[in-house]
């Protein structure tokens, strides 16, 4: 059955691409298939050669493929008498193939014998097979083997192999595809519509019931595409394209469908002008780069061994003369190039055609055919080819491949091994521009020279990928790449059979630099050439000699445009040394040092992080002799706090140096430039013939602008810590309609795919800082708002409690931009990856909505599940027109008093009209403000369909305390709680998120990227339960903003102290907090007494008015009552005066009695009386609250915007009910072996006995003060003598308002009254 499946797959593949790809080989050399399958078993039985290949998994693969003849226009290239050859196809590898890496190099037979002996008796017979690889590397020792494991015992065998002492690790065999063909570029619209071949596939599986379908349509899920991918390693964009400017019919047929999908083409006249510029006399690529000047000096790449890893080349190519060796590493029996790319690359490097000469025409060329004619390769092919390149001592290799997976360890680590052997590797940076954060591997590795593309006007090519690298985020900061830029647009190179053709792409720019490296290598005298030249020294020559391009930043151009002449000068006088890339850190240099030059440094900010690369030309290994030393040069420099992190071992040839810049507190008012330099010493072992270690001193100038600390309302904090991207897991795209890019892999950083938002905020005067540690690691009193955009990770419980307090008490704003989430749709996005022969399951949706809802528990709000597509229009926002919600989620619930903006109303045939989905919610929470929007696409620079930048600025102004009428219009005010908390979005029940979540894998801590005062802090004060607030309707009245505006100097000392972490030296802080909170509680109790007195007076006034309106016959009684009231008032006034005098007397008397030890009995009696009175008052208040809690409500539907309210008025389940440890929500991360998460429990109601603890009073709950013990006698007298009638009036008044459905509100603000419910309910403060 597997062979039949393989044959059908090959047939379908041939039909799909047979008319597009047309390859030829001369047939002069007919090598056999390079791999055969030898059977092995637990007994170690040796199997003979088999016709099954490792790549095909079926018999006679090459023969069956070769019979599919394809006519071409290059019949003259076939030698006389040769049989007609068609395009040779390849097939996906069979199931169960794994790469087993060993700890040392031995011959393959020895590794096989060792495995056979170790697995003898430990595995069933025939459960594993050793795949014999027949290629030129078989004559040399190897460090890996290729095994086929039986499916039924695969897991057991992998575990057994991992336990063997001579086995390093086991990885699935991966298929690497460098696809040339892409859909014809029809503009952005066609890209977004996509096609099945490029990532969209019809959903399959069991159908959805009609009720679920209707719910999906309401949530925008009526057209959710499933995911699919091309065969091969997950890739980004094709690395090259063909320019249709030649007459070769076969290659012209390729060109029409080979355009890079996101490339931007100029008109034909401009393209023709560029080609005329290049093809004019004396204007070849070599002459533009001034390589011909070096040729005139006698240097043409002689005695340099260049390896081209590509699609091969003809042995008798007329324009490439110095082909020393050709090797084939694929299963296709040919050494020739059937595609054209390998011939082109070889021509750029070593071509001799005068119309398109290569840069090093006399280099010794070695071609490694690692790609088939349909551009498929496998990791094992590369590993063998790399091993052979090291064994045959290549000097330079070129790789024109790339992909986003930098965690393919066998491939990535073999690249490091290649460079550690002294081979200089040049690789294309990728064709995913103009998007940021799209660097491809292996070009993004420090030890590889990564090349970007420019055109002949020195403008960056639109397709060239931009930095920064994303390996390091969220905890660190990415490195600057590409290293240098080279011409990659309309470059002339060799055709398959001779002559010139034009190609574009970064895989074209890569051989341009590779050819230059060959030429530069020949400049160094041979007797010391390879003692001086290595990956680090060559990169130093290239980056230091590069010419910076105007208008481009560091992460677009690296060091700048390649300059062969400048690099030659550097190499001629080169002495092995270490250096830093970039050579100086001038953060005031715009636009080159974007984004740092756009925002000055100031005291109290998150540290400026910069990740530089140390190049060590002294040797393969090295180390820093000590930490770098900072030396200030001016007053500003002395105000800088400069810290460093660096590689303990520099290998291979390089390492990292992280710089953290902060302004000391005494620089809060300083404005000016800060300059200085830091220096460090790199030490390497002595070279051959030397006796002392090599040492190199590196001096790095540094400059930055310092400004006074901005006002709080202008400071915005971006949450980066909770963002996860591909790899290590499959995180799907944020916009389901963008089907040509199935991965979320750009980093979600304000300096990558949200760079336009960063620039906009700076233009609007906001200061954006990045939080790369948990939310417990910053002082909220410094920031106007925390911005959470497209978060995928969970939240620590301490983060939830801390952020709730930050908003409620400290007035910080909270803005959340979510993305689509729907469990059924997430499950449909699974696809089969033929790289690993496994199903890829999406870890979550566009955002982790269940985790966000956990964060929103104390705010009484939540997001719905869905993937809504709709236009959104917010009236009254200057500068912000309608924008598109692209696969977003609606708002599910909001507290009363919120403002809710909806999508335009829609009415489908046969259905009642609706008000539209609620998509933007805003509400006041304590002293702070919260804004929720269900989509981040309008902020994302990668695949945005419309922008909502002005909406963001208005939201930030609103959270900062300003009045924004367009956001808080009366028409969108919700006087009752909106929505319900039933049927909340749940997590995937069949996915173990703890395997990929940093939050669930690591304990809570603050990292070096956080403020220094939080380093080593503990957070026990935030380890408290949280719950949703009581849902009550509110009057139609907008409350004034209570948040402090301006520079934040009005924040109390208590707020500043509350944000400080607990750790060493902070015990006093906790005690102060407790004392302050106790004082707050006493004040709150006194306020309650005052309110009761005010209520009594109001009740008495009403009684007097009623008496005056009585009938005439009761006039006397009314007058008597009035006199009685007046007398009572006089009596009360006299009593108050008397009480005042008695208080003074009692205080003196109490002191005297204390000295005489006679106070005990009187105090006990007074305390008992006060407790009984307080208990009676609480009982009355519980009855009042019970009436309020029984208000009815329903879902938001119908005319007039009727809002929903709880059916029974009770609270919703809190976070501990929704997400128990070990099941759903954030839990203790020490449990690394968490079982797969089941679905969230579905609550049947709002909860019968919800907990009502308040964050504001959580620390004083156990210390509630019923009254002041010092004035117990006064309170007793006041209650018994003066307010008995007042209390009775209060009861009558509250019952009257409850019968009329009115809220118990006094003075326009909600009081913290005790909550009444069932008999088990406790007061709010208990």
Counting helices, strands and paired strands, the structural category is alpha/beta
CA distance, first residue to last residue: 69 Å
Mean pLDDT: 75
Give the strand content: 15-25%
Number of strands: 42
| Residues in helix, % | 25-40%
Global Rg: 37 Å
Large-scale geometry: elongated
Tally the helices.
32
Describe the structure.
Helix content is 28%, strand content 17%. The chain contains 32 helices and 42 strands. It has a 7-stranded parallel sheet, with helices on both faces. A 7-stranded mixed sheet has the order 30-29-31-32-41-40-39. A 5-stranded antiparallel sheet has the order 1-3-4-2-5, with helices on both faces. Strand 25 (640-646) and strand 26 (654-663) form a beta hairpin. The radius of gyration is 37 Å and the shape is elongated. The two termini are 69 Å apart.
List keywords for this structure.
1326 residues; alpha/beta; 32 helices; 28% helix; disordered N terminus
Short description:
The chain is α/β, with parallel strands linked by helices and 1326 residues long. The strands form 11 sheets. Strands 11-12-10-14-15-16-17 form a 7-stranded parallel sheet, sandwiched between helices. Helix 27 packs across helix 32 (1284-1299).
């Amino acid at each position: 059955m597997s062979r039949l499946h393989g044959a059908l797959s090959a047939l379908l593949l041939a039909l799909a691409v047979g008319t597009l790809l047309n390859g030829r080989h001369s047939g002069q050399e007919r090598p056999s298939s390079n791999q055969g399958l030898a059977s092995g078993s637990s007994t170690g039985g040796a199997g003979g050669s088999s016709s099954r290949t490792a790549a095909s998994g079926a018999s006679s693969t090459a023969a069956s493929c070769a019979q599919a003849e394809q006519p071409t226009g290059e019949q003259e290239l076939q030698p006389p008498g040769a049989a007609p050859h068609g395009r040779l196809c390849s097939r996906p590898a069979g199931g169960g193939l794994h790469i087993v890496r060993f700890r040392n190099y031995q011959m393959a037979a020895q590794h096989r014998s060792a495995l056979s002996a170790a697995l003898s008796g430990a595995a069933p017979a025939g459960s594993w097979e050793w795949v014999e690889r027949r290629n030129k590397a078989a004559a040399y020792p190897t460090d890996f083997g290729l095994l086929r494991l039986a499916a039924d015992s695969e897991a057991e065998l992998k575990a057994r192999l991992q336990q063997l002492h001579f086995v390093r690790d086991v990885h699935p065999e991966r298929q690497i595809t460098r696809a040339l063909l892409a859909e014809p570029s029809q503009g952005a619209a066609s890209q977004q519509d996509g096609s099945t071949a490029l990532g969209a596939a019809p959903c399959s599986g069991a159908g959805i019931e009609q009720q679920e379908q209707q719910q999906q349509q309401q949530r925008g899920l009526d057209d959710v595409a499933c995911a699919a991918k091309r065969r091969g390693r997950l890739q980004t964009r094709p690395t090259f394209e063909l320019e249709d400017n030649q007459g070769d019919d076969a290659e012209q047929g390729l060109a029409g469908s080979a355009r890079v999908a996101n490339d931007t083409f100029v008109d034909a006249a401009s393209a023709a002008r560029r080609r005329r510029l290049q093809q004019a006399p004396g204007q070849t690529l070599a002459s533009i780069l001034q390589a011909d000047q070096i040729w005139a000096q006698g240097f043409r790449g002689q005695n340099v061994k260049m390896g081209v890893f590509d699609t091969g080349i003809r042995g008798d190519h007329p324009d490439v003369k110095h082909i020393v060796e050709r090797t084939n590493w694929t299963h296709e029996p040919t050494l020739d190039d059937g595609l054209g790319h390998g011939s082109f690359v070889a021509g750029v490097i070593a071509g001799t055609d005068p119309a398109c000469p290569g840069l090093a025409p006399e280099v010794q060329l070695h071609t490694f055919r690692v790609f088939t004619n349909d551009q498929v390769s496998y990791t094992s092919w590369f590993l063998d080819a790399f091993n052979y390149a090291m064994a045959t001592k290549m000097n330079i290799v070129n790789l024109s491949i790339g992909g986003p997976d930098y965690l393919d360890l066998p491939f990535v680590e073999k690249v490091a091994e290649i460079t550690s052997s002294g081979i200089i590797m040049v690789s294309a940076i990728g064709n995913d521009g103009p998007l940021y954060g799209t660097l491809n591997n292996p070009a993004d590795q420090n030890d590889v020279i990564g090349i970007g593309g420019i055109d002949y006007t020195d403008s960056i090519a639109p397709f060239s990928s931009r930095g920064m690298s994303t390996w390091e985020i969220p905890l660190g900061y990415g490195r600057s790449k590409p290293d240098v830029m080279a011409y990659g647009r309309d470059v002339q190179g060799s055709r398959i059979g001779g002559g010139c053709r034009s190609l574009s792409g970064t895989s074209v720019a890569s051989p341009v630099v590779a050819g230059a490296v060959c030429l530069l290598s020949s400049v160094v005298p041979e007797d010391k050439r390879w003692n001086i030249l290595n990956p680090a020294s060559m990169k130093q020559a290239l980056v230091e000699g590069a010419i910076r391009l105007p208008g481009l930043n560091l992460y677009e151009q690296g060091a700048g445009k390649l300059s062969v002449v400048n690099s030659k000068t550097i190499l001629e006088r080169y002495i092995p040394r270490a250096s830093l890339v970039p050579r100086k850190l001038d953060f005031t240099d715009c636009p080159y040092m974007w984004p740092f030059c756009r925002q000055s440094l100031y005291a109290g900010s998150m540290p400026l992080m910069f990740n530089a690369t140390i190049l060590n030309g002294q040797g393969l290994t090295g180390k820093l002799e000590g930490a770098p030393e900072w030396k200030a040069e001016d007053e500003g420099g002395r105000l800088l706090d400069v810290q460093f992190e660096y590689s303990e071992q520099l290998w291979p040839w390089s390492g990292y140096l992280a710089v953290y810049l902060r302004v000391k507190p005494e620089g809060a008012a300083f404005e000016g430039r800060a300059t200085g330099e830091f220096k460090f010493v790199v030490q390497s072992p002595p070279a051959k013939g030397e006796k002392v270690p090599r040492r190199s001193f590196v001096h790095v100038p540094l400059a930055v602008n310092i400004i006074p600390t901005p006002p709080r309302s202008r400071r915005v904090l971006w949450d980066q810590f909770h963002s996860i991207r591909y790899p290590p897991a499959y995180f799907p795209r944020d916009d389901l309609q963008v089907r040509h890019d199935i991965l979320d892999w750009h980093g979600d950083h304000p300096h990558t795919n949200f760079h336009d938002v960063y620039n906009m905020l700076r233009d609007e005067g906001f200061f954006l800082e990045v939080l790369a540690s948990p939310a417990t690691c910053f002082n909220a009193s410094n920031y106007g708002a925390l911005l959470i955009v497209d978060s995928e990770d969970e939240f620590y419980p301490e983060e939830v409690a801390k952020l709730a307090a930050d908003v409620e008490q400290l007035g910080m704003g909270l803005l959340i931009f979510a993305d689509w989430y729907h469990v059924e749709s997430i499950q449909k996005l699974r696809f089969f990856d033929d790289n690993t022969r496994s199903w890829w399951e999406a870890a979550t949706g566009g955002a982790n909505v269940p985790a966000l809802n956990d964060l929103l528990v104390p705010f009484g709000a939540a997001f719905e599940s869905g993937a809504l597509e709709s236009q959104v229009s917010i009236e009254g926002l200057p500068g912000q027109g309608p924008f598109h919600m692209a696969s977003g989620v609606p708002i599910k619930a909001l507290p009363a008093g919120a403002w809710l903006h909806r999508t335009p109303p829609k009415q489908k045939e046969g259905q009642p009209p609706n008000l539209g989905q609620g998509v933007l919610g805003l509400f006041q929470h304590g002293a702070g403000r919260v804004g929720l929007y269900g989509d981040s696409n309008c902020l994302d620079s990668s695949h945005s369909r419309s922008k909502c930048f002005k909406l963001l600025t208005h939201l930030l102004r609103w959270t900062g305390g300003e009045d924004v009428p367009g956001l808080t219009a009366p028409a969108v005010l919700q006087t009752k709680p909106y929505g319900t908390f039933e049927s909340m979005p749940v997590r995937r029940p069949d996915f173990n998120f703890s395997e990929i979540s940093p939050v669930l894998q690591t304990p809570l801590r603050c990292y070096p990227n956080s403020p220094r005062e939080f380093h080593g802090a503990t957070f026990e004060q935030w380890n408290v339960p949280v719950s949703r607030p009581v849902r009550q309707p509110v009057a139609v009245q907008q409350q004034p903003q209570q948040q402090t505006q301006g520079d934040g100097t009005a924040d109390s000392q208590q707020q500043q102290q509350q944000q400080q972490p607990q750790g060493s030296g902070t015990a006093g802080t906790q005690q102060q907090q407790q004392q302050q909170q106790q004082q707050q509680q006493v004040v709150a109790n006194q306020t309650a007494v005052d309110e009761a007195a005010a209520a009594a007076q109001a009740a008495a006034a009403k009684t007097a008015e009623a008496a005056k309106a009585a009938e005439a016959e009761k006039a006397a009684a009314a007058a008597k009552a009035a006199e009685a009231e007046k007398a009572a008032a006089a009596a009360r006034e006299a009593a108050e005066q008397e009480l005042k005098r008695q208080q003074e007397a009692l205080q003196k008397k109490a002191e005297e009695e204390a000295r005489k030890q006679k106070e005990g009995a009187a105090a006990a009696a007074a305390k008992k009386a006060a407790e009984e009175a307080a208990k009676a008052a609480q009982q009355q208040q519980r009855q009042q609250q019970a009436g309020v809690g029984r208000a009815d409500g329903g879902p938001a539907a119908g005319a007039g915007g009727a809002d929903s309210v709880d059916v029974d008025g009770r609270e919703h389940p809190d976070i501990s009910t929704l997400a128990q440890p070990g099941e759903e929500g954030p839990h203790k991360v020490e449990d690394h072996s968490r079982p797969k998460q089941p679905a969230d429990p579905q609550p049947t109601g709002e909860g019968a006995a919800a907990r009502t603890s308040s964050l504001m009073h959580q620390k004083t709950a156990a210390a509630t003060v019923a009254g002041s013990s010092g004035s117990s006698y006064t309170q007793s007298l006041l209650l018994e003598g003066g307010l008995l009638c007042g209390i009775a009036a209060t009861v009558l008044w509250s019952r009257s308002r409850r019968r009329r459905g009115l809220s118990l509100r006094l003075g326009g603000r909600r009081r913290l009254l005790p909550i009444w419910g069932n008999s088990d309910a406790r007061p709010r403060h208990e």
